[in-house]
Amino acid sequence: xxxxxxxxxxxxxxxxxxxxxxxxxxxxxxxxxxxxxxxxxxxxxxxxxxxxxxxxxxxxxxxxxxxxxxxxxxxxxxxxxxxxxxxxxxxxxxxxxxxxxxxxxxxxxxxxxxxxxxxxxxxxxxxxxxxxxxxxxxxxxxxxxxxxxxxxxxxxxxxxxxxxxxxxxxxxxxxxxxxxxxxxxxxxxxxxxxxxxxxxxxxxxx
Length: 206
Fold this sequence. Notes:
The protein is of the alpha+beta class. The protein is built from nine helices and four strands. It folds into two domains: 2-73, Glutaredoxin, CATH 3.40.30; 84-193, Glutathione S-transferase Yfyf (Class Pi), Chain A, domain 2, CATH 1.20.1050.10. It has helices at residues 10-21, 38-43, 63-73, 84-111, 118-142, 155-170, 176-179, 181-191, 194-199; strands spanning 2-5, 27-30, 51-53, 59-61. It is globular. It starts with a strand and ends in a 7-residue tail after the last helix.
């Protein structure tokens, strides 16, 4: 299988971590979603990364679809529980983490605009408020627990770790580790896992 990805994409990193945890081999193909890319556009009509080229000649896109597919390929270390209650809990964590990343990426793109104006400032403020709200929700849900859902390492922990890592990479001024020490504790554990170390685009400090 080939994964079309960008090294700094938190969504692609989530897929790479899942593959590492599942002991699945992926051929990584760096793909710039901002430049004309016929291979990426053929794999994903939206032109976004990550996109997975499967062994049967098909393609999958959207990280949530890809990780569910990968989790079903091997019985090794199931990351998405089969029980409906825990499964929904894991997918809820993934939704919060992905939403935080959505907001962070929009804020970063607006911040990089050469023609920033009052509208840009308002958009950045709005997206950063979403980041703050997402962090507060994550912190509340995690509480004193070691893992996001139950007693087993799941996709919820991977998605959360990737989202927090992206903030450390792109928004070091958002000092979430000081405001939410339980998230900092959780991230430190995630960052120590081999699957995270191997996929870290720029090892951040927890």
